[in-house]
Amino acid sequence: MREALWAELLKARRSRLPWITVLAFAIAALVCGMFMFILADPTRARAFGLLGDKAQLSGANADWPGYLALLSQAVAVGGLGVYGLIAIWLFGREFSDHTATDLLALPTSRTTVVAAKFAIGAIWALLLALLLAGLGLSIGALLALPGWSAPIAINGVAHIVVAAVLAALTTTPLALAASIGRGYLAAVGVLFGIIFTAQVIAALGHGAVFPWSVPGLYAGIAGPDQGSPGLTGFTLVAATGVAGAVTTAIWWNRADHT
What we know:
Layout: H1 2-13, H2 17-39, H3 42-47, H4 50-57, H5 64-96, H6 100-104, H7 110-143, H8 150-169, H9 172-180, H10 185-203, H11 214-219, H12 230-254
Helix pairs in contact: 1-7, 2-5, 2-7, 5-7, 5-8, 5-9, 5-10, 7-8, 7-12, 9-10, 9-12
């Protein structure tokens, strides 16, 4: 496992994707901060025109609880896309770069290889969530948002991390899609379909029974009327994450790789 983790870490370090994902999360923190900047002054919001209207429609308040809630919503929805691309890259690159058969010929079990990839993906997702939280706290301090307190900050950061964990768990089936599709294209199509379907089902009020809608519901993106996804939603997310990981390992062990 140590050698497999080192190999996956080396691949990630030499890729541009980690920097692209860092940039995506940094932009998310800046955009959320911009919403707070606009919302803090209604006159300034009207001067921004349509942008101000969209900020008002976000339902956020220009204070620390509202800002941290907005950040958790960003990681819940945007994280599905970014974490999904990470899972697709970790598994699909072996087939696109024609290194899969070489990888499978190594004296390391295929289950260990799959586990190492998922471990790197989990660490990657957590670091991005912590980056977003850190940038959010810094931007909020620069904006001098009202309502600061240590319990509010800790609770807000915890919500960001939990939303990230929920979003990351739902991306394990994309690893299977990238493996079966033997590359990126099919899995990216599945990712787009999941994102679209999650938005539709959440809008219809059934997001609690669709795992990919649960992170957004937990973050409150659907508003207070939708409520929390509850134990059923969290259980479905956990089951999806486990099922995706297990079936991916089974496929790597039993598929015809000739």
